[in-house]
Each structure stands twice: as structure tokens, then as C-alpha cells.
Amino acid sequence: QVQLVESGGGLVQPGGSLRLSCAASGSIFSISTMAWYRQAPGKQRELVAGMAPSGTTNYADSMKERFTISRDNAKNMVYLQMDSRKPEDTAVYYCNARRNYGRYDEWWGQGIQVTVSS
Question: Are 6 and 20 in contact (CB under 8 A)?
Fold first, then answer.
């Protein structure tokens, strides 16, 4: 099993920046890709960005200019840099890890609140 713990959320002013962190533990060798999703009130969960161990990234449309995903394989960490925050970025952000070889599986963090407000 893989455990994911997010940190770094909170309140940020419009136009401000935050960096979310996700620490992976447990069966970390099972992880192929890691990603960030978010879910705003009244909306479905959506992909923000994902990254393979090779460094290949995948951003959702309209996310690439303001979101940057990075990964530290040695520390089993994945980060999400969020710049130029807007009120519509307010959501619960979830860390996700996925196994794409052999037996497919995926794991989720508990989610962390990000609120963009003055």
C-alpha cells in the first residue's frame, strides 16, 4: 500500500502563490505516475497536473501557465507550485499516485484546502 500526505495549503490573497507538497510512503516502488487533482464546491474532481518518473508532465487545459508540477524521486515527494491565484482556484487539492504496470492500482491523499480570498 501507498500512503500520501498533502501539506502546504491554506489561505492566499488573489494574485499570490502557494506550493503544495505531497509525501509518499509505504510501497513507493509501486508508483508510476503522481498527480494533483482538485475539487471545487459543487464541481467534479478534475486533473490539474501529472508527472511520470521520467519527468514527462501532463497538464490539464488552461492549467499550464499558472501551475507547475515537480517531483523529487529521491525524497518521494511531489510538489505543485501555484502562482497568480484566483478566487476560482479555491478547492480541495488531492495528491494521487498510480501504478500503470502489471496490476493497476491508485492511491489518494486525504485532500488539503486551498482558499483564495482577500
Answer: yes
Mean pLDDT of the 24-38 span: 93
From 16, 10, 3, 7, select the one nearest 85 (Cα to Cα): 16
Q: Is the predicted pLDDT of residue 53 greater than 90, yes or no? A: no
Q: CA-to-CA distance for 103 and 94, rounded, in angstroms? A: 23
Round to whole Å and give the CA distance between 70 and 78.
Answer: 6
Q: Are 21 and 9 in contact (CB under 8 A)?
A: no
Nearest-5° Cα angle at 56, 19 to 103: 100
Q: Give the three-class secondary structure for 28.
A: helix
pLDDT digits 0-9 by tens, 65-78: 899 999 998 899 99
